[in-house]
Design brief:
Elements lengths: L1 H13 L3 H12 L4 H7 L6 H40 L18 H15 L3 E2 L5 E2 L1 H4 L25 E2 L5 H9 L4 E10 L11 E11 L4 H16 L5 E5 L5 E10 L16 E10 L1 H6 L8 E8 H9 L12 H4 L3
Parallel strand pairs: 1-4
Antiparallel strand pairs: 2-3, 4-5, 5-9, 6-7, 7-8, 8-9
Helix pairs in contact: 1-4, 2-4, 5-8, 5-10
């Protein structure tokens, strides 16, 4: 037994690496190790011999286990010291470069729009993308036979709801949620069942704006719109206002922006016209005010719907709207 102890402890002491020490441990204490084999032989001994030899083997096992544990600490320290001595670390060198993420151009423009309106005292609200037909159509004075309700224009869900085709449902919801007078915007994603091209996409972004007070005018609306566009682009922009028909406003207008991709020369984004339809707007129709739970004899309002995706294209001179929702990192890394 003493010869076994001497042999085992000498092998432990001779191990100079973690791997070598592990081999010694397995060779002596593993399932097929030498000590395990000796313990299996105890069954063939007499009871007295089995007890004495069993105690001696258990003591030997304990001695080897303790020796391995102590040697493991020494070997680990030696390996660490050798590693430190073999490597030079210069703490003054710059660290490894970090590939930082970038904000999507849509996020940048939405932040700019929200910042402009917050400074003008507007609430920033968020409403569902899956809407009821009432809020998406009926509450906005859109008649039952309007072509926008057709399946070739609108995505209908299995439960009878729709993917909102505009952010305008926020008008009725805000009038029901907020106590007038108030002003609010509702940015978000909208969906249209339509063919895609350089200026049209089935999924894009808008922001709806609404102001409710006892006395409002088209002049108030235009001032807010120009404040918005100047704030987003950082400079005065050229616009034009022309009549437009939308069921939820009366009178209605189209505010067009001079194309900033081609500077008015004509391109696929502006359909060769030099102008981009950017901002339908007008005074809120009395029926919409009624659907919002307010009395149109007491309260008036103006509303607008801004195409955020087209605004992004103007700001960054992007010539195809489909890049915005492409998920292509090469596109995002440019901003």
């Amino acid at each position: 037994m003493e010869a076994l102890r001497t042999e085992a402890l000498d092998e432990v002491a001779a191990a100079t690496t973690t791997a070598a020490l592990k081999d010694v441990e397995v060779r002596w204490l593993g399932k097929k190790g030498r000590l395990t084999a000796l313990l299996k032989e105890l069954g063939g001994l007499s009871p007295d011999d089995r007890k004495a030899r069993g105690q001696a083997l258990n003591e030997l096992k304990r001695d080897i286990t303790d020796a391995v544990a102590q040697r493991e600490i020494a070997v680990a320290q030696a390996e660490l010291a050798a590693q430190a001595a073999g490597e030079r670390l210069d703490p003054t060198l710059p660290g490894l470069p970090v590939d930082a993420g970038r904000l999507h151009p849509l996020t940048r423009v939405i932040d700019s729009v929200e910042d402009v309106f917050e400074r003008m005292g507007f609430h920033i609200l968020d409403y569902p993308e899956a809407e009821t037909e009432f809020f998406n159509f009926d509450g906005l004075n859109i008649p039952a036979d309007h072509p926008a309700r057709d399946t070739q224009d609108t995505f209908y869900l299995a439960d009878g709801n729709v993917l909102r085709t505009h952010t305008s449902p926020g008008q009725v919801r805000a009038m029901r949620d907020l106590k007038p007078p108030f002003r609010a915007i509702f940015p978000g994603r909208v969906y249209r069942c339509e063919a895609t091209d350089a200026s049209h996409e089935h999924t894009f972004h808008q922001v709806e704006g609404l102001m409710i007070d006892r006395h409002v005018s088209v002049a108030h609306m235009l001032h807010s719109m120009m404040t918005l566009l100047t704030g987003v682009f950082g400079r005065p922009v050229q616009v034009r206002l022309r009549p437009g028909f939308f069921p939820f406003v009366e009178p209605g207008f189209e505010l067009d922006l001079r194309c900033m991709v081609c500077e008015g020369a004509g391109c696929p984004v502006c359909k060769r016209s030099g102008w981009v339809e950017l901002l339908p707007c007008g005074l809120v129709h009395p029926n919409v005010i009624r659907h919002g739970g307010l009395d149109p004899e007491e309260w008036e309002g103006w509303a607008f719907g801004l195409g955020l995706s087209r605004l992004v294209m103007m700001r960054y001179q992007i010539d195809d709207i489909r890049w915005l929702m492409s998920g292509d990192l090469r596109f995002v890394r440019q901003f």
